[in-house]
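WARN retry 2 of 3 for item q-0093 after timeout on previous attempt; input resubmitted unchanged.
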Amino acid sequence: MMAKKILTYSSLTTFQNCKQKYKLRYIDNLTPLKIHENLFIGTVWHKCLEMWHDPNAETSQFIEIEKYIDKAFSDRDADPIQKKHWHLILAMFQSYTIWESEISGENLPMLEVESSFRVPIINPDTGCKSRTFDFAGVLDGIIGINSPEAILENKSASGITGDYIDKLECDFQINLYSMATQIDQVVYNIAVKVRLKQGEGESEEEYEERKAALIAKSKSGKSSAKQKVAESDDSFHVRMIEKYENPELFQRVELYISPNKRKQTQRELWDLSQQIILAMRNDCWTPNWSNCFKFGASKCPYWELCSSDHNPNIRDNFYTKKEPHEELQK
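OK item q-0093 returned
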């Protein structure tokens, strides 16, 4: 008997969004050479919280996490984008630790961090296991010392509105994880990614040009304008920390996943697995062109390949082979 393949939340949503993208990543094992910056930021943020919440850490990981952030953005002095993200993650992490202490009085009572699982996919009508797929995933954490177990899910967002909170009820990932682990309590820790811009300086030429424009508009023919000096990293960091003093930039939300919801999710998982099996059997991977630019300016990472009609030169220069389900490979 052939070994079962794995389905994860990521692979399932990829199939839902675009069957061709699923084939490229999970059948052909292709992945872009360049990692999207938002994906990288999310990876760094989750690693920070994994280290912070680790129940097996002998001492506070605060200093080690700051070192990790520095290393993750090691080219920040030469790369303005890295500098921006370094400021964000550092301020967000430092402020998060203060917020967490204030809301709970202490660190979360963690049982495990990055807790992985693999379970069979069950036909809800017959109770039989899928012979093709298992479902696997990794929980951010499990909370449960002196209390019922709960799934910890760390999220970062551009903003937290009423709609954002309501959407958590439809969180397919957590519904899947609750079904797989039979843990019905979920604790979301949500951090907002603030948008502040570090003050830039101006060259002598830019200053003289701006000053001349101000003088031209002035009735006195004079201007007291001074040359703009670039904001230091220390000053900008202080501004970031002050911004994070707003209590609305971090939120904790607790949800309950009902037995009926878990049954519904079991049905969804089974149906999706059967659709994937059918696509594999027929070798039919229809592209979903409406999904290529779903997230505004952020295009699908496989756009170059698909739009070139799978040009082998594009494939060889922009993509590489890598085993799927990297999140499971610890």
